[in-house]
UniProtKB/TrEMBL annotation:
Annotated region described as Disordered, given as residue ranges: 1-21
Any Pfam family: TetR_C_14
Name under which the protein is recorded: TetR family transcriptional regulator
Annotated keywords: DNA-binding, Transcription, Transcription regulation
């Protein structure tokens, strides 16, 4: 989905939940197991990212520097680099990846992998649109306009593929490094990226959730056109 923050999650064997969780229910900000230090780190990451988006909106991507971002977020440049390796990572990072793993593992046993991924992605996007629509739209426009961001996104997708492929493999009883699972997950994420770019190229005027569902349906049809 996006360049991952340094928060990570290790998938465990799925258990039958009393109620199916959704991404909004499991957002990092609301997880009670996070300690005070972890919450402070999360707030710092969010503050840095929001300052970055604010500056980019005012003066453009290329003109925005790490020093300016640090000043706007009221942290030092070294703190920015402690949380994000590059400016591209700031723009592309979010807190959804670990949450998507949790939601994926909690999907009903026997559900087709494609439908499990559909649920996870659509829930994540709907939640993002409810809470940070302007950021989602700005990020997508930047992906269309800035080659460095597209390159970083493609690079980060390898990590996201591994993150989602592992719980998906566990759910279907395959090895974590199963080739078919990895290819399936990578193809799925690549298709979603192209869908997002298509949405951005058209000025974000279409219904993004409908576009995502169309993309998943194309997978389900065996790519019959």
């Amino acid at each position: 989905m996006a360049a991952r923050s340094k928060t990570s999650a290790s998938p465990a064997a799925p258990a039958a939940p009393a109620a199916e969780p959704s991404v909004p229910d499991l957002l990092i900000e609301g997880q009670p197991e996070l300690g005070l230090r972890e919450r402070k780190k999360l707030k710092t990451r969010i503050a840095i990212r929001r300052a970055t988006y604010r500056l980019i909106k005012e003066q453009g991507y290329d003109a925005t520097t790490i020093e300016q971002i640090a000043a706007a977020a009221e942290v030092s440049p070294s703190t920015v680099f402690r949380y994000f390796a590059t400016k591209e990572d700031i723009v592309l990072s979010d807190e959804y990846d670990p949450v998507m793993v949790s939601v994926l593992m909690a999907r009903p046993a026997g559900e087709p992998p494609l439908e499990s991924l559909r649920f996870v992605i659509v829930q994540a996007i709907e939640s993002f649109m409810e809470t940070d629509y302007e950021e989602l739209e700005q990020r997508t426009r930047l992906l269309v306009e800035v080659p460095a961001l597209r390159a970083r996104m493609l690079d980060s997708m390898t990590e996201t593929t591994r993150l989602l492929a592992e719980p998906l493999a566990i759910r279907v009883g395959r090895a974590a490094d199963d080739l078919e699972i990895r290819v399936f997950t990578a193809a799925f994420l690549s298709a979603l990226l192209q869908t997002s770019l298509w949405w951005g190229e058209r000025d974000c005027q279409d219904d993004l959730v409908e576009l995502l569902n169309r993309t998943v349906d194309l997978f389900g049809s065996g790519f019959r056109l």
